[in-house]
């Protein structure tokens, strides 16, 4: 079975291609949000999701943020299980989605939430520029890598017209 490769029609591959991408985007978004909330909010105590109010409100906002990341990750796991059941899981496409979801979320957080809305910063009482640069450059690199991988898998799908879907 390990050496066996499942083949799908071009139409089916296109439908599953989108599901693979969205399952990856949701997983990447949930995973990066989970890492952000666990590392920076809980372990390092650098900030809360919402820092413009009391500490209690910050903790409530962290809880809601954590629930969001959990639901996104679990929802994507159900999508992945369905793709696997249909023999339609396309790992390269899924990883492209993970990078898009994770990088997109991190870039949104770094630009919109940190700078435009100012609901929290990465850290306080330090020179924030190095943190902002690292945060946003990593986010942009993840997003760019995800877009490149997604474009490559789309081209591969169009060129092969429904070839092996389980290949990397």
Explain this structure.
With 168 residues, this protein is mainly α. Helix content is 73%, strand content 0%. The protein has four helices and no strands. The longest helix is centred in the first third of the chain and has 34 residues.
Produce a short descriptive summary.
The protein has 168 residues and is mainly α. It has 4 helices and no strands.
Please state the CA-atom Rg, rounded to the nearest Å.
19 Å
Going by helix content, strand content and strand pairing, the class is mainly alpha
Beta-strand content bin: under 5%
Described by the principal axes of the CA atoms, the overall outline is: globular
Instruction: Calculate the mean pLDDT score and round it.
Output: 86
Give the fraction of residues assigned to helices. over 70%
The SSE string, one letter per element, is HHHH
The quaternary state of the protein chains shown equals single chain
Major β-sheet annotation: none
DSSP summary: helix tally = 4
* Number of β-strand runs: 0
First-residue to last-residue Cα separation: 17 Å
Poorly predicted runs: 1-5, 162-168
Features:
single chain, 168 residues, mainly alpha, 0% strand, disordered C terminus
Secondary structure elements and their pairing?
Blueprint: H1 10-43, H2 55-85, H3 91-116, H4 129-160
Helix pairs in contact: 1-2, 1-3, 1-4, 3-4
